[in-house]
Amino acid sequence: MVGYDVDAMKLPITRRLFLGATGQAGLYLGTSGFALGHAVPRPTNDLFPAEWADLVSRLRDAPRAECVPLLLHELAGGEHYERVLTALFLLSTSYERGQRVAYGLHATHRLGVEADDSDRLVPILVAFDEFKRLQDRDELGRPFTGRTQDEGDDPRAGFEALWADGSAPFGAASLLRLMPHVGLRHAARAIRFLQSDTEPTRSASRELADAVAEDLPRTWSWRVADEASRELCNALLRGRAREACELGAQQLASGVTSGAVWDAIHLAGCALRADVRNAIEAAHATFYSSAFQRTRVRILFHALASVADHGRKAAANRIRHPLRGRAPGASNPQEIFGAIRHRVLRSASSTHAFEVLRAAQESVYRVSPAWQPYLLAAARRDFPPTGTPASEVYRAWTRATQPTV
């Protein structure tokens, strides 16, 4: 897991910055049109650990129009960035349908760490604004009842149980990676939330995966580039799940590594929707997180079957095959993602764009260098360099933080 300079997120909030924000941000966000007195279900304070109840309740009860000044006030008053991040996690996981915010918090944190100093708080402001928008529209569902007690410091056993069937749900990968930043003591809460959102599945590929897992060479999980990826990618985009899984089993038995199989899955994803590529990256991350070989093989074959199913649906729409035509030229990932990051910070009104960007970045470095240009080309298609307008939150942030004359 990549390490981050967490202390860098405790940004200096000057008196001028705070006064400017509190005086102006409400004005610019106040045109959203939501009534401050709109009645929505609220989780009670006894759902949260005692030391978090006050901060969580302030975030829960604040009007949407005050998102920017409230968070600046909390930080100026001595709250650490990670406490605010944790409070958003606790708050979003206290509702039945809080997934849109909860599952986007890891990507939110990543983008905040990678952003320029002047924009590092924009992602968490967007996440907070998204939560308040869903709350005002009564789209979060009912709050849970009863508080989950903190259980130990190691979430691995609970997460292993969630992905033992091979499905590797996106939410599990996201919350697992969020845990080091909000505290492993909250793992039981994350697992309970995931259990309420995840139904056990039995993929048609599971029996084949279990048979393959019995007799794999020791080097099967290495990451080695192989031209077999091209053949498997073609099978995936033909949309025949059984054929793709059987070909994957044959390749693994012949000595092709799982890295080459994942290369094929990511390559096929280049022809599919961004949400599918998000799920691929989550499954790949989960593959390396699991400690059990049988579970890892199930995850791999579930990904093969799932991508082939999406390939079948996409084939009817005459998708653009990533391996046909002229190969994309070499590009610098840091330059490409730096430009994309700037556009996303300016225009995003929800954390979904953060998730797509994070998955694209992670995926590029998970595949073999020969295939990276294909994934970079897909990322450029997801974020075209067009003149997208600045979001309401970003306009409020920039105006609130401009020096006063």
Quote the average pLDDT: 81
Helical content stands at: 55-70%
Strand percentage: under 5%
Low-confidence stretches are 1-41
**Helix and strand element order:** HHHHHHHHHHHHHHHHHHHH
Rg over C-alpha atoms, rounded to the nearest angstrom: 22 Å
> So what's the overall shape?
globular
Oligomer: single chain
- Number of E strands: 0
Written description of the protein model:
With 405 residues, the protein is mostly helical. The chain is 60% helix and 0% strand. It has helices spanning 15-29, 50-61, 67-76, 81-92, 99-102, 105-114, 122-136, 156-162, 170-182, 187-197, 206-213, 228-237, 241-253, 258-269, 274-289, 293-315, 333-347, 352-366, 372-382, 392-401. Helix 6 (105-114) crosses helix 9 (170-182) and helix 9 packs antiparallel against helix 10.
List key phrases describing it.
405 residues; mainly alpha; 20 helices; 60% helix; 0% strand; globular; disordered N terminus
Question: How would you briefly describe this protein structure?
Answer:
The protein has 405 residues and is an all-alpha fold. 60% of the residues lie in helices and 0% in strands. The longest helix has 23 residues, at 293-315.
